Amino acid sequence: MSGLLSMLKSRKFWTAIAGVVAVILVNLVGLDETTAKAISTAIVTLGGLYIVATGIEDSRKTAPSRQVGTPEDETVGQP
Fold first, then answer.
1. SS3 10
2. pTM > 0.90
3. What is the pLDDT of residue 45?
4. Residue 70 has pLDDT above 60, yes or no
């Protein structure tokens, strides 16, 4: 049950749902095939980019932080 609740709180999940609904609505409106395909492609692309960016952001929140430029970095590979 907690997995379902965490999924319902996920921005990525709701972005995917909104993308699917938007694509369905675009195709139901009755636009010509070329226009509907272009709009659907744009929605899916932007939604996918947002989901990937959110995933990267989420992974950086959980990853251990590492400071760049510490003395250990400068001595790696030196005798």
1. coil
2. no
3. 93
4. no
